[in-house]
Amino acid sequence: MSLTNELIQQKLTDKFGEELRDWVQPYGMLTFTAPKDLNLKILQFLFDDPELKFQFLTDLQAVHYPANKGAELAVVYHLHNLTYNIRLRLKVFTDINTPDVYSATALYASANFMERETYDFFGVNFKGHPNLRRILNVDEMDYFPMRKEFPLEDQTRIDKDDEMFGRG
């Protein structure tokens, strides 16, 4: 038996029903969205199911969508089934004012530093994380630099000639 995106989607739909939505397959990678309160249950199911066996967390990061009111921050999990070499992407959205998402460190040890980095740059509070503190930025920072509310360039600089950068 071979594991396919259709089989994975069917098993997840059978287990979680209409809670899972926005099913797409960009470049063949099954991608879906779930409520943030279900992230650990879904990850545990994907990890434990004898057919699915998504036991490798490839990556975990956040994306800031400022126009998406009430769900401005997305936490994105990339999982890998090493037996069948299949990957999938799980997204959960959270409000920027209460960016609480359950930590996956109990299930995936590799989530430890990834969650710390996501907290450091986006401010996602991973509930249950054993040591959630800044990992790359200084502890004194009182903002999260990867959010789109901060400009990429210093607007007060006068030594830049926009024509040199194709903007003039």
What would your notes on this structure say?
There is one protein chain. The chain has 168 residues and is an alpha/beta fold. The protein has a single domain (5-146), classed as Beta Polymerase, domain 2, CATH 3.30.460.80. Helix content is 20%, strand content 25%. It contains three helices and seven strands. It has helices spanning 5-16, 39-48, 111-122, and strands spanning 21-24, 30-34, 56-64, 73-81, 86-94, 100-102, 125-127. The strands form two sheets. The protein has a five-stranded mixed sheet. The termini are far apart.
Write a compact overview of the structure shown.
With 168 residues, this protein is an alpha/beta fold. It has one domain (5-146): NADH:ubiquinone oxidoreductase Nqo5 subunit (Beta Polymerase, domain 2), CATH 3.30.460.
Layout: helices, strands, pairs:
Layout: H1 5-16, E1 21-24, E2 30-34, H2 39-48, E3 56-64, E4 73-81, E5 86-94, E6 100-102, H3 111-122, E7 125-127
Parallel strand pairs: 2-5, 6-7
Antiparallel strand pairs: 1-2, 3-4, 4-5
Taking the sheet with the most strands, its summary is: 5 strands, mixed
Number of strands: 7
Number of helices: 3
Portion of residues in beta strands equals 25-35%
Provide the succession of SSEs: HEEHEEEEHE
Task: Look at the structure and give the mean pLDDT.
Answer: 93
Structural class computed from helices and strand pairing:
alpha/beta
For the record, give the distance between the C-alpha atoms at the N and C termini, rounded to a whole number. 59 Å
Count of individual domains:
1
Instruction: Enter the CATH topology name.
Output: Beta Polymerase, domain 2
In the predicted model, the low-confidence regions spanning at least 5 consecutive residues are none
